[in-house]
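Predict the 3D structure for this chain.
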Amino acid sequence: MLREGLMQYWWLLYRHSKLLGQRTDIYRNVEDAYTTRQGDLILNSDSKHLDIGSGSSLVPTFLFQRHGALTYATEMDPVYLKRQKEFQVTLGIPESGRFQVQAEDATGLSFRDNSLDFISVISTIEHIPGDGDSRAMAEFKRVLRPGGRVVVTVPTSPTYQEAESTFYYSGFERRYDDAALRSRLHRTGLKMIDEQHMVSPPEEFSTLFRAEFAEIFHGVHPAEVWYKNGWHEQYPDVSIMMTLALIRLSPNSSGSFGAMLTFEKL
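Done. Predicted structure below.
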């Protein structure tokens, strides 16, 4: 994260999380920092920003306060629409102003063609079943203006996988291999301009880390122990230690367990 200039964003987002009473997370520490950095490159007060699957995300309010762009925090779940509205109230953002919370289906957006500057899709598109991820990408292309950008983050694995639930998520999720990233997420007219993969650190470092915490992890992957024990809820402030211990960023997909992709509309 240091080489990629993301640590400063992690710190700013961490402070923002404290204002909102939200926890940080091993993987979202990286995904959120990457997305906000990409947002910084394109957003200003005249921009329009759409966040898909906002949930409890810090990113919509953080980027809104940073740039003042017309921002749409969107969800299909009423619980999380309420969550974003609560964030809005906590931060003193006027409800009738330039920060809008509304229901949206990523596969059939209500926005006009060529009307948005930036779209953020963090750990969301992999949960849309069927061909929903591909249909969503087509919608993002439709509503982005030429030169507009979309950031998509997804879990990856050596082989394409679909599951009705996982040990850390109770709904549908897919994991993408290289072929699935290309066939399901790449679209004609959207040029990929940046690609970062979450991969493991050098083996020597991983071995030392696991040895140091052998009595805690007992030979099981640290992230699995972390989530299964609910430590992501109990000890969120320690998540950055886990992030730095378990994740290195690489432009190459070899060994990838998470991809962060930025596309620009031609």
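The chain has two domains: 7-199+251-265, 201-246.
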